[in-house]
């Protein structure tokens, strides 16, 4: 799969999400979202071989997500999806169709959780459900890794 166009594409969509948050804000707080795009873009394109760049990219992008999410939950969610896409691309975790399928599943689950939060005006129950789901995923992934290690090394770690 040709990944050369994906990184600029995800960043362009992140810019569109921040612009959407800025336009719908009807206040000067929307300009903060646009200003926070500068460090994300700089880390993404200007310093490609900087040690620890992905960590700093995730941190600066999360500040952007929080700023957009403070204005509207949907712009924050969209920006979070694009940030996750950029970070996964940088880590080499979006290589095939299966990886994109899992990414789309993540987007759908978070969309449903955001809709539940928006409708119910409560955050605790959806966050407990999200934590339980993440715990189950980590549990099954740990079992899978154990089975793979046991099959290919023959020893229990």
Give an overview in words.
The structure is a single chain. The protein has 157 residues and is an all-alpha fold. 82% of the residues lie in helices and 0% in strands.
Q: What is the residue-averaged pLDDT?
A: 85
> Helical element count?
7
Given the C-alpha coordinates, what overall shape results?
A: globular
What structural class do the secondary elements suggest? mainly alpha
Please tally the β strands and state the result.
0
Computed over alpha carbons, the radius of gyration is 18 Å
Strand content: under 5%
Rounded to the nearest angstrom, the distance between the terminal CA atoms is 35 Å
Q: How many strands, which pairing sense, and closed or not: the largest β-sheet?
A: none
User: Roughly how much helix do the residues carry, as a percent range?
Assistant: over 70%
Element pattern in H and E: HHHHHHH
Low-pLDDT stretches are none
């Amino acid at each position: 799969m040709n990944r050369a166009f994906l990184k600029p594409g995800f960043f362009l969509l992140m810019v569109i999400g921040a612009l959407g948050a800025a336009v719908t804000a009807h206040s000067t707080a929307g300009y903060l979202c646009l200003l926070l795009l500068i460090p994300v873009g700089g880390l993404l394109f200007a310093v490609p071989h900087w040690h620890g760049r992905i960590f700093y990219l995730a941190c600066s992008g999360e500040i952007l997500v929080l700023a957009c999410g403070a204005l509207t939950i949907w712009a924050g969610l969209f920006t979070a999806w694009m940030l996750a896409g950029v970070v996964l691309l940088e880590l080499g975790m979006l290589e095939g169709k299966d990886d994109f399928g899992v990414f789309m599943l993540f987007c759908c689950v978070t969309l449903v959780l955001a809709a539940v939060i928006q409708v119910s005006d409560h955050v605790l129950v959806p966050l407990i459900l999200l934590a339980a789901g993440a715990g189950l995923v980590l549990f099954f992934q740990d079992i899978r890794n154990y089975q793979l290690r046991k099959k290919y090394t023959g020893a229990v770690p």
